[in-house]
Design brief:
alpha/beta; 21 helices; 3 domains; Rossmann fold; single chain; 16 strands; three-stranded antiparallel β-sheet
């Protein structure tokens, strides 16, 4: 499905769901709509998947009931093996059939949700959905809600996994007020770009016969990054890796996103047990584990004040995840970056999406600068790709893909590549999805990857040494003078005038003494450096490297334009006043 068709399909089905939400108005206030809409959307998707399999499943369940010691988990495995779907509903009916018996809908629906197999029961229990059903029965709105959802087409033949992922994410974004302000679900074409960049080189280890590839996302949301990675790895025209050789691992702090992710794993035949709920920074459910591919889009600009004490406690432990330091509490993005580095195998590939702040925030010696220093001096960073703005559903800011590797590609020789892909996009058609107004189509994606693999300077690609981003912050002092203009000396030491103190930012590749001689002393002859206060800093001023000077328009041209506009305005006024 192309971009236009996909967007139209997602918009139309999201609008259907939003119309259903309005049916709960009264008993539910708008901030509570999600308590019903999210689990019902999940159930409807399951319902559509099982629709043409219920007859076969019913025969399997009937036969298994005669087997002594048969458990629900064993029945799930039988259904998975014989019907290629890893769950079932023991009633073997659809929502449409339930609605057909309107007089008994309330009791039948309670039985229906209780009849799901164990994997789905765990998801519904985590959403506390039975309590919501009982509340809807009490308020007399259950039939209308179930009937409305029975008319929504979520069948796999008409709603692809990609489209369903978008729908789930838009529903969560719309109806969950407790979602973090910095949470941004990642468009699938951005995920595809991340994965294409990760897999475009230095991945021979993934192609080894029998290799089990472990993929991890510490902010997995609804699972889009994990499922997209698997889809691309198993593509017959690509890596063509066997699906059973891929394991997907994820963690997320949002209970609704976690539940949807578990549901997605079930729908695609992956093990939902590898998806965990909890705060990755404070509840590491994969402590000590290592992964081959790591990809994440952490919350942007979200403070970690409540996690501070737990993180500081971990910092005291050997082999902790945050060895490079901690950033300011107002933004935890670089903590998630360190989490990925700590969980990466020695030959792992990493992709993380960040906003502009981690590139340059923080002075020399600050937590952010020290984390950048750790990444750059240990040659972990390969490339940064600047994406167009207006790529995400609930923010229009510019974002950046960082590509990292613990096993650098020799041909890159520890160099760092910056790619400005801000102009490589198409319009989001037929209309925007929230704030998402731009789309990276297949051609643009291939062009970006081609720039990365070419690893050569071009109009949108620049190559740097790690030292190019480093600098020494040198404190410059000046003598303190008395009323007669003499230097103030105490105990043989010239006193400094703190009011004249200044600092110089000197690139690492420049000699400090030569810089001071050429750039400072000609203007302040009595200045001298206090090298004991030197601080090393690192920043990546991305936009500065790609800045193009545009000369201002000539004043004569501007004047003529003003005169022309005034004449036009005068004519308009005369016409109106007549």
């Amino acid at each position: 499905m192309n971009n236009m068709a996909l967007t139209a399909d997602v918009n139309s089905k999201v609008n259907l769901v939003k119309n259903i939400a309005n049916k709960t108005r009264g008993p539910y206030t708008p901030e509570k709509y999600g308590n019903v809409i999210i689990p019902m959307a999940i159930i409807r998707r399951f319902d559509c998947i099982l629709a043409d399999k219920n007859t076969a499943i019913e025969k399997i369940l009937k036969a298994s009931s005669k087997v002594k010691g048969m458990t629900s988990d064993m029945r799930e495995e039988m259904v998975k093996r014989q019907c290629n779907v890893p769950f079932y509903n023991a009633k073997c009916v659809s929502l449409e059939q339930l609605v057909g018996d309107s007089d008994n809908l309330n009791s039948n629906f309670l039985e229906f949700i209780s009849a799901y197999s164990p994997s789905i029961q765990r998801i519904l229990q985590s959403l506390k959905f039975r309590e919501e059903v009982e509340f809807m029965i009490k308020k007399g709105i259950l039939f209308e809600v179930v009937k409305a959802f029975s008319e929504v087409d979520f069948h796999p033949s008409t709603t692809s996994p990609m489209a369903m992922g978008y729908i789930f994410e838009e529903i969560i974004r719309t109806y969950k007020a407790n979602a973090e302000a910095g949470d941004h679900y990642t468009p699938r074409e951005v995920i595809e770009l991340c994965i294409d960049l990760m897999l475009s080189e230095n991945v021979d280890n993934l192609k080894k016969e029998g290799k089990i590839i472990r993929i991890y996302d510490g902010c997995c949301g609804t699972g889009g990054m994990l499922t997209t990675a698997k889809r691309l790895l198993t593509d017959p025209e690509g890596f063509n890796i066997r699906a059973e050789n891929i394991r997907l691992y994820g963690q997320d702090n949002n209970p609704e996103a976690y539940a949807v992710c578990q549901a997605e794993m079930l729908m695609l035949g992956d093990d939902p047990a590898y998806i965990r709920e909890g705060n990755t920074l404070t509840e590491d459910h994969f402590a000590g584990e290592k992964f081959d591919l790591l990809i994440t889009n952490p919350p942007f600009g979200v403070e970690w004040k409540t996690e501070k004490s737990t993180i500081e406690k971990e910092l005291k432990q050997p082999n902790n995840r945050f060895v490079a330091g901690t950033p300011r509490v107002s933004d935890g993005q670089l903590l998630f970056l360190q989490n990925l580095l700590a969980k990466a195998e020695d030959d792992a590939r990493i992709a993380i999406i960040l906003n502009g702040s981690p590139l340059f925030s923080g002075d020399a010696g600050s937590g952010e600068s020290e984390i950048r220093r750790y990444v750059l001096e240990n040659h972990l960073l390969e490339a940064i790709v600047a994406l167009p703005d207006q790529m995400f559903y609930n923010t229009g800011i510019y974002t950046y893909i960082w590509i990292l590797s613990k096993k650098p590609n020799p041909r890159r020789n520890h160099k760092i590549q910056l790619i400005d892909a801000t102009a490589l996009h198409d319009d989001q058609k037929p209309k925007s999805l929230g704030n998402k107004r731009k789309f990276i189509d297949e051609k643009n994606r291939k062009d970006i990857v081609a720039e990365y693999t070419a690893f050569a300077p071009s109009e949108i690609s620049k190559i740097f040494d790690a030292e190019d981003f480093g600098y020494t912050k040198v404190t410059m002092e000046c003598p303190l003078y008395d009323e007669k203009g003499n230097k103030v000396i105490k105990r043989g030491v010239v006193q400094v005038d703190s009011k004249r103190r200044d600092t110089e930012i000197i690139p690492l590749k420049q000699d400090v003494d030569a810089y001071i001689k050429d750039e400072v002393l000609p203007y302040v002859p009595d200045a001298f450096p206090d090298r004991s206060k030197d601080k090393i800093g690192y920043e990546i001023p991305f936009t500065r490297f790609f800045y193009k000077y545009t000369p201002p328009r000539k004043s004569e041209d501007i004047l003529q334009e003003i005169i022309a506009n005034e004449e036009k305005l005068q004519k308009t006024l005369k016409a109106v006043l007549k």
